[in-house]
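TODO from last week: model Peptidyl-prolyl cis-trans isomerase.
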Amino acid sequence: MKKINTLTISALASAMLLVTGCSTNNGNQESAVKSVSVTEQSSATEKVGYSLGYMMAEGNKDAVQDLDLDMFEQGFRDGYEGNDSALTQEQMEEVLMTYQKEQEEKFVQDMQNKAEENKAAGEAFLAKNAKKEGVQVTDSGLQYKVIEAGTGKSPKATDIVEVNYEGKLIDGTVFDSSYERGEPIEFPLNQVIAGWTEGLQLMKEGGKYEFYIPADIAYGEAGNAGIEPNSTLIFTVELLSVK
């Protein structure tokens, strides 16, 4: 899942200042070049100019997704070459502040819509999943299925456990996996999401379970990096050891 970029207009402004501050332009810069070809054989000045421009745009493209590139170039050139601004400083600051406020409000509304959609989808998934063979449901709403029972000891909430796991969204998207990293992880069981704290205490060492975790005992309305608000999660977990 794509992580949401929270860069603001101020970051774009800072990057523009960086370009200006690092430049040693002598005022002989050619006007509006429509296309360029930069290679390893280009001059240092050409490569510096291209690199700063590319990095500035790439790092801030999510902050201003509807940027008018023609107007950006005109404003950049006017400021860089010392021409009079078409807008006053106060007007420009007000424009940027208003734009940023509108984007923040849109972001909040989008997250609220996502939260409602994910909650409904999660509830529908869990209701259907609970009827499947082998799926058990606890009082908290946690659902689990025993793949391998295990024969060792069960952890307490205060124990440290070593596990291998894969985490998925209900659409099958894998968002985290110790298998992909090639090594298990260790953590205190009482310092993870509530669904894990509860679920792993049902397991024994050597066991392998699949957990279906409602949002309210996962990451809830806040979500997490790569996980939208109110997402129901699916984890396959192997309990390797209790320490």
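Done. The beta strands are 135-137, 143-148, 160-169, 174-177, 185-188, 208-213, 233-242.
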